[in-house]
Amino acid sequence: MRVLAAMSGGVDSSVAAARAVDAGHDVVGVHLALSTAPGALRSGSRGCCSREDASDARRVADVLGIPFYVWDFADRFKDDVIDEFVGAYAAGETPNPCLTCNEKIKFAALAQKAVALGFDALATGHYARLTDGELRRAVDEDKDQSYVLAVLTAEQLGRAMFPIGDTPKGEIRAEAARRGLAVAEKPDSHDICFIPTGDTRAFLGARIGIRPGAVVDADTGDRLADHEGVHGFTIGQRKGLGIEAPAADGRPRYVTDIDPASGTVTVGSAEHLDVWSITAHRAVWTSGEAPDGPVDAMVQVRAHGGLAPARATPVTRDGESMIEIALAEPLTGVARGQAAVLYAPDPRHGDLVLGSGRIATTDSDPATGVPRLRASAGADR
Q1: Could you tell me which residue ranges the tRNA-specific 2-thiouridylase MnmA-like C-terminal domain spans (predicted)?
Q2: Annotated binding residue at 12?
Q3: pLDDT tens digits for 299-318?
Q4: Quick one: which of 84, 221, 301, 313 is 20 to 30 A from 353 by CA?
Q5: SS3 category, 94
Q6: Domain-terminating residue out of 161, 178, 195
């Protein structure tokens, strides 16, 4: 097959490209330039898409003996990922830009260009597995990225390759060293790639501006503090609330609700964070078809945690495919804008991704949940 290997300049995508070559494919490497003003160097493990990263990817391609190109996707990345990220925070949501990048850049814009140029598949360094077109968790649970890939359609998965998903990260680094790849010990990128400083609040404030509002108590409705914009808060947040006096009961407060229309941020005790049901929109079923009725599943609501048994029901409202999710036990820190990813409930096949949706609304009433589906299933991971 003709395979386009997306090469970020890191160790994972480098080994993925090498394995595609070893498998006998006709491989071409491509580095995506996603910044309109890339820096010369990375800031350690923060950020990506620097000129250093492009050079690292090129050197790996030279070692592998494959053609290499840099494609400029900066404008598309700004429109589809950065602007959506800023807009979601302004609307009181907590988006995951990696989900959006996979959905709209890597496996949409890039994949479409690859197909137009005659490539059969797109290989990336994601930690996930594909078995007969079915998306599954990676062998390395700590590095598993199936959560941020669950937005992909069956058609997109059919053109994807994840060559390293069957290998723990430590072995990937060792393999890179054996192959003589200079990126073997390069630090992993973390945080949000387009905010290399790590200061998300400052990044958002510079783009959204000051939108004053109040921090109020969930129980009494008392005004506890003022703030400069709901973009500085997320559900479950404990620190940085601007509250001077402790709660009357001495217990910590958490953000429990965000109303972007009024600018109100509500805070309360940990008990106020319990969520028993979720409605998700932008539904995607990785098989290509929604189930005929309710299905039992394990639902994950954060990239690294928030896992519980649930019953998921596909619904259509105003022409949009949605998922209603009733939990068998409460989850906390469930934020609008994050993904609710459904995994098979059977322990023998619990690594299988069934589908996903973006969290639109939640309900804290226990009556909206369902009886425990499995005695030992589910807990925040």
Answers
A1: 277-359
A2: yes
A3: 999 988 889 999 999 999 98
A4: 84
A5: coil
A6: 178
pTM for the model stands at 0.91
Give me the sign of the Cα torsion angle 202, 204, 209, 211.
negative
Residue 37's pLDDT band (cuts 50, 70, 90): low
What are 111's two structure tokens?
């994949």
pLDDT of amino acid 189: 78
Distances (CA, A) of 173 to 16, 46, 140, 162, 169: 12, 19, 13, 16, 6
Compute φ and ψ for 304, nearest 5 degrees. Answer: -135, 65
CA–CA distance, 244 with 218 (Å, rounded to integer): 17
**What's 215's domain CATH number?**
2.30.30.280
Is 81 labelled as part of a ligand binding site?
no
Residues 311 and 370: beta-carbon distance below 8 Å = yes
| DSSP conformation class of 250 | -
The H or E element containing residue 153 is none
Strand partners, 71: 32
Residue 186 lies in a domain: no
Residue range(s) defining the domain that contains residue 127: 2-178
User: Looking at the annotation, which residues are catalytic?
Assistant: 101, 193
The span from the CA of 3 to the CA of 26, in Å, is 6
Q: What is the per-residue pLDDT across 148-164, written as a single tens digit (0 to 9) for each?
A: 999 999 999 999 999 99
b/e map 313-325, b = 16+ CB within 10 Å: ebeeeeeebbbbb
Q: Would the annotation count 9 as a binding residue?
A: yes
In a domain, 196, yes or no: no
**Length of the chain, in residues:** 381
